[in-house]
């Protein structure tokens, strides 16, 4: 199957590639109940050494830069309590942690979670964290620009491989909150 975006050797429906995904991501694909059929979530095999955005677009197509999203784990703190959440913004933007995230989480302070926390709590590899398969009680803050795209490239839970996901599917993830202005240019 030809990938709807990028220059990949091929794309396969994610339900047919569960062995390529980390356990939490495979479980999310297996139990997917969104209005977008799970078969429209696609897996593409990629080289792990090219996982970082700048290197990735050089190898798989510069057009992916504006069609890719990063998923980062943040921690909001208030009164000694910490809330972990995920933020999904286009690769050309950065997460507005100090304003949009802090307000949405009702936190006095918000920051990016430590790598060990992000990987340990998600069960995913650093550089491959994806919004599919996150802990069910986490808020998943999604920039509206991500939802508006026909297809978005995101991590697969591992540094090897990526998922191509219809943008509107992000609004249907457990805990999803779509926000205007979550990503800053």
TrEMBL record:
Coiled coil: none annotated. The keyword Lyase does not apply. Keywords: Aminoacyl-tRNA synthetase, Ligase. It comes from the Bacteria. InterPro entries: YbaK/aa-tRNA-synt-asso_dom_sf (IPR036754), YbaK/aa-tRNA-synth-assoc-dom (IPR007214). Residues 62-169 form the YbaK/aminoacyl-tRNA synthetase-associated domain. One of its GO terms (molecular function) is aminoacyl-tRNA deacylase activity. CDD domains: PA2301 (cd04939). Signal peptide: none annotated. The keyword Ligase applies. This is YbaK/prolyl-tRNA synthetase associated region. It comes from Streptomyces viridochromogenes (strain DSM 40736 / JCM 4977 / BCRC 1201 / Tue 494).
